[in-house]
Protein 1
Amino acid sequence: MIDLNGLQINVIAVLIATAVNFILAMVWYAKLFMKPWAKEMGYDPNMRPSGKVMARNIALSLVGNFLFAWVFAFYLAGWRLLPGGPSEFGALAFGFNSALSAWIGFFLPMNLSRVVWEKHSWKLFLINSGYNLVATVVVALILAYSI
């Protein structure tokens, strides 16, 4: 646990959330929704990137997952400092409520903009927004149980 001006961040929980989110993304996009996602994105589902491209993509995904978990840990730590904050809720309610508010406030509008301005389909919206919701809940719960 590190303390940054009163915000306590559990680095181990951040690393665990990073790994779990990475695995969730692989299951979501490579197993559960590979064919519909690839079709909606205009990709050939049989195309496989080269080893070098795959290694780069994995590394960038891990960095992105770490940044998401790290910043979300600060979000939760900030809520923890408010009177009547998570101490009045259990970790489950605190994590779920925090995840839902972040998803509604950040991911949902971003994905809606992609439908409106980038002409993404509603099917792609549901796949991506669904992943964002599940990933945000999972990361929030891991972090909420660690504070």
Protein 2
Amino acid sequence: MTHTTIHDAQPEDEDAWRTLWQGFLDYYQVTLPAEVTDHTWARLIDPVSPLKARLALHAGRAVGFAIHQNHPSTWVMGDDCYLEDMFVAPEARGMGAGRALIEDLIALARARGWKRLYWNTDQDNAAARALYDSFIPSDGHVRYRLTL
């Protein structure tokens, strides 16, 4: 098995990220306007934006991403890190990229003094939930999202 390396998304990663992003959208059967994807990419590489992406690479090829942002918390004396979107290309699943992305975010959050890392997933996503449960069991929260 090839070792997974992880780095912050850089401008030169745009094509690789867009390919992975499209795979993520396809998995969830979602179509977004091109302007939304363009805006997301611009924020991911903007140094002042809190929205960031980490890319997982196997043999120098991007195989996954973790989009995250940190924010103040009312529950701890410090910031939380929200893992908003994570995706590993189907052909790379089972090679440790998903685990490496989460472990990378844990290390990054600790290094930056963030207090908690949290995320959500579809309740029927058994493969992802098996990985997530290996870190921590679900806390039982249910997400509600109101589109405005």
Protein 3
Amino acid sequence: MEQINRIELRGLVGSVKLQEVGEKKVARFTVATAMAYNDRNGAAVIETQWHNVNAWEGKRIECLGKLKKGDKVWLFGRIRYNKFTGADGQEHNSTEIIANRLTIIDDDDVFPCEM
């Protein structure tokens, strides 16, 4: 049986934190995705989800220095679940997307961050 852990997101970038680790860059950023639907009463509802994303500069991601709040992005990656104990002694869970392909989308053009 083949096992798959794959996700594709298209959305808007929220906060961006760029760091250098050795000679590579890593971006930790958020992406908002929205889904619109009508509820039982016919009222329009827009449901927004925020996703935490980590992207390491590499052969498929080379534009991390250009990434900024408000950019439209299209990314592919995998989901990773983390469990940790906070300073308060409580166990916490977090979910993040580890991107392996990233594209910044302009209204007229698509700029792939991969070569």
Protein 4
Amino acid sequence: MKPLPVNGAFVWGDDAPWDGPIAEALLSRVEFERRWGPPHASDLEGKGLGPEEFWGWRAPCGFQFFVRYLRDEDTFSIFAAVDELDHALAHLDWWRGEVRWRLDEHMPRRKLGWAVYRQDDTGNRHDVCVMASRPHAECFARLMEARAHKQWYGVELRGAPPFRPPRPRDGWFVIRQDEHGNRAEVAVIANERRARELAAALEAEPRHKQAYFVEPAETKG
């Protein structure tokens, strides 16, 4: 996995994390750093929770998530989309009872989308989870199969493909403008903060004589 950038704007896209942690784990900080290295970012204030340290990654399948460590509580928390919790645990290799709390424990699970199922050597099958993203589901299945004994994992569609809403025609336009004043619409995003994050991320790339900015969609002629 590649560390997520810690400087400048970062855009989550469709797999934006839940507003808070989706799981909490207890494990050795020394062992965690031995495997994953020092924190990618830190916050000494911690928004009232005490000093915080963060690790963030992007997996080859495109899945993005991060882990927070609270020094005062000596606990780790996972931040990701709720449906991706098992995927995050698989990448972290947390199989041995590290997780002491998970948000989805009493939540209804997704029923439509890409199911990751387990099949044993006698042909018995069992759904592990259902995810919105096929590449993420296939990545999770490979991780599970790599540690399984006499079991294999597959991915298949349950119901219709996950619904992707049409691009909004209201909200916030991300606009690209070249040195001649020519403008092009890059994206329409309902949330102003995310639109500005995307514009800032594009602006930070080494592009030649192009500028990116955000304006309310209703003002575009």
